[in-house]
Amino acid sequence: MSEGDFASRQAWFQLLGPVQLLAGSRPVPVGGPGVRGLLALLALRANKVVPLDDIIDALWGHDPPATARTIVHGNVSHLRRVLRSIQGDGGDGARIHTRPPGYQLTVDPSQIDVHRARALLEYATAAGAERRASVLAEALALWKGPVLSGVPDSVHAPELEDLRLAVHGARVDADLELGRHAELISELTTMVRENPLAERTIGQLMRALYHAGRRADALAVYRRAARHVVGTLGIDPGAELRELHDRILRDDLTDPASSKEPPPRLVRVTPAQLPAAIPRFAGREAELAWLDGLTEQARHGVSVVGVVTGAPGVGKSTLAISWAHRNAGNFPDGVLFASLRGFDPAHPPLEPGDVSTQFLLGLGVRPAELPEKAHERIALYRSLLSDASVLVVLDDARSAEQVRPLLPPAAGSVAVVTSRARLDGLVVANAARIRALETMPPADAVRLIEEVAGPGDYDKLAELCGYLPLALRVAGARLAASPQWTVEDLVAELADERTRLTALDVAGADVAQASVRAALDVSHRGLPEAVGALFRLLGAFTGVTIGPHLAAAIGGTAAPEARRRLRTLAAYHLLTEVGRDVFAPHDLIRLYLRDLAESELAATEREAVLRRSVRYYRAAADRARRRLLRIVDPLDFTSSLPEEASPALSGFDDALDWFALEWPNLLETCEAAYRAGRFEDAWQLARVVHTYRVVRPLRDEWTGLVELGLAAAKASGNPLAHCWMLISRCAIALTFGVDGGGLADAEHALELAVEVGDKRLLVSANIHVGAALSSSQRYDEAIERLRQAIDETERTGDLALRGQALNNCAEAEKLSGRYAEAIEHQLGSLAIDRELGDDSYAVVSLNNLAELYLGTGELAEAERCAHQAIDLTTSRGFVLQEGVSRAALGRVLRARGDRSQAFDQLKLAEERFRDAGAPWPAELRDELAAAAE
């Protein structure tokens, strides 16, 4: 393939102008505004998963059509076809993948104009002025008109305008540095006229006029801008613009094109205030490189602020101090350091004015010269650093307000801030870069222990420490201080969750620096009162993750307020937002939470958390299951939870997503209820959750849940509970082809139904007895019993049970060779499935019809039903049923003589059975072998 052919097969995504997909330079039609909007949303977040809910919100706002999900699914399929038409079916190139909870465009970012523009801007920061101007001009050329043209008005990306302004401003700075003053005046004048509040552009125009010999015009520009700012906003222009005005008045503005001399140093003493670093520093290469990047940016004429944030004990201070020692030589005017005591349990946070006193003394100001007022000391500090290249390390900050007055003002300076809080305010107001410090990779964690304790086999020890640096250092210190302790001894102590946090203390050391529990205590005690109260309650919840609705139920508040409190906990790094509105604690924080709940919550409070979580999950799962399947049991808990307190589950897909996300919590809550002796809660929750595994069977998990529910039902002494859980276990046997088909359970359930005297329960039990008889090859008995159930449900008008009876009767008739009766009954079942909108049962009906038509030799009908079933199973994610559907299609294709395609379908079917934990039937194994011959 020639280079030109290769280029023509590369997809190029244009967002900076009319949204287009191009093959090389040739536009490729993709469709209307909705499709282009979807393309833009995926490209803006390239290589990241874009949740389906976010796509719908962006395309339709708060009023999406009922078919929004279907429209998006269809448009994704269309875009996939378009990409294949450009790139072919090979593995390279852009691809759209389904990644729960949405979609992901995997693509080389250089194929997207937005990412290309960002890359050019980043590259330019390290280039000389000539190259910088050229590169930034290339970046600006990527804008082909108003961004995101041709997409729905609801699709917004305001960051693209910020990017354009950043690129343009940097290009103008480069041109000013090159002395192109006269050429810039016209361009900048137009821009200031269009946006008279853009102070950066105003300052650039003033510089261009001044250096072009038009000092009076530069001052006039300032006066007009000042009048407009005061008249519009009621405030003075910013400090930087006022300072530029003053320098033009004094006629002391240096032309960067005529002088490359460094600015005069005003610092009288070169401070070196860093505390000692640890002797050996393991790991953190990526984070050190990120900090190095701050220095590189500062070298190109900007003042940079970097925030290192993370959980207690994750090594923020160690990283910042170690890096600062390595890089102190890059800052000729010195290094300033202050511990701001933001989370010090023994002292209040330091005020900026007090820190400025320390810094001024370090800069050589005599005590007698220190201004009395705090704001005057801060002003003097800034003045002394106005032309200095310094590194300022501000450790353990509590808030952006505590930090902001201490940031160095001069270009070429760097401030590194560490904090347990995220300090988002510094990002908004000071363009700070944030690096969230995570736990260490396993290999680096082992290296860290080795640095403290010497060589050894520390893999398991590092794992039990949760790869948290503080815990790793404590474990290493314990081994180093007590040679009689072996690694195996310490691993055994840490393996017990009840004693793990106690084991991660070093006796006699500074508690705040040598105890994981103490480090977490500091963060916990620093929380706002309401947030701290929720944090303690979470310790009594035994699940894996927490979301706003569950937190609201546990904390007795509304979901929006619970979401705000969870995000506050995430901002303090006591929880991690692992998905959209899904929060989870680190393992050691989870143990700390459990201990906290046991020590600070009364038994009644812990019981209330379990009661509320069971009530929430029982009602929410009941709502969700009713969107998956028609419900035949009498349990209804939906009224126990108001709509606004429940997750929004608009349809089948939402319910599936909810169950998949909450499944570990549902199992854990069910087990917790059983352990606490709340047997009614346990079996009821198991029964409503069981529906999810009917739709998406996974044998081991489903069996464990139902066995737990059955044990709870027996312990409750409630025959109704016992009956329904036996029916649940029978469903597992029928689904996975267990020997006997659960006949003993079905017959026992029937006995209990007679005892209870519930006629509807009696019919349901009889249907399961009939299905189990069929599975045991007692076809005549099965058909007789199921036809009785059909007659009974026809008499009562119970469509849900009638559909089940028809389906099971058709299955028994198919296995006994009575195809005509089976087809009639299966078509009746399918009609009910569609009337009730029940895709789960419709798939079963379509699969059975495919088998039946194959048996009668109607291959075209059989293939049609199999394809319909595959479309439905793949769109809904029914793994086991997809295997059944593909097996049916494989048998049909083999009957038509297409052995190659039959083999492919049967192999896929085998994989799906394996994914669901279901045995691969012997007859299908034979079919596969025959297709392979």
From TrEMBL:
InterPro entries: AfsR-DnrI-RedD_regulator, BTAD, OmpR/PhoB-type_DNA-bd, P-loop_NTPase, Sig_transdc_resp-reg_C-effctor, TPR-like_helical_dom_sf, TPR_rpt, WH-like_DNA-bd_sf. The keyword Transcription applies. PROSITE patterns: OMPR_PHOB. SUPFAM superfamilies: C-terminal effector domain of the bipartite response regulators, P-loop containing nucleoside triphosphate hydrolases, TPR-like. GO terms for molecular function: DNA binding. Residues 1-107 bind DNA. Gene3D superfamilies: P-loop containing nucleotide triphosphate hydrolases, Tetratricopeptide repeat domain, Winged helix-like DNA-binding domain superfamily/Winged helix DNA-binding domain. Residues 1-107 form the OmpR/PhoB-type domain. It comes from the Bacteria. Keywords: DNA-binding, Transcription, Transcription regulation. Belongs to the AfsR/DnrI/RedD regulatory family. PANTHER family: TRANSCRIPTIONAL REGULATOR REDD, TRANSCRIPTIONAL REGULATOR REDD-RELATED. This is DNA-binding SARP family transcriptional activator/predicted negative regulator of RcsB-dependent stress response. The lineage of its organism: Bacteria, Bacillati, Actinomycetota, Actinomycetes, Pseudonocardiales.
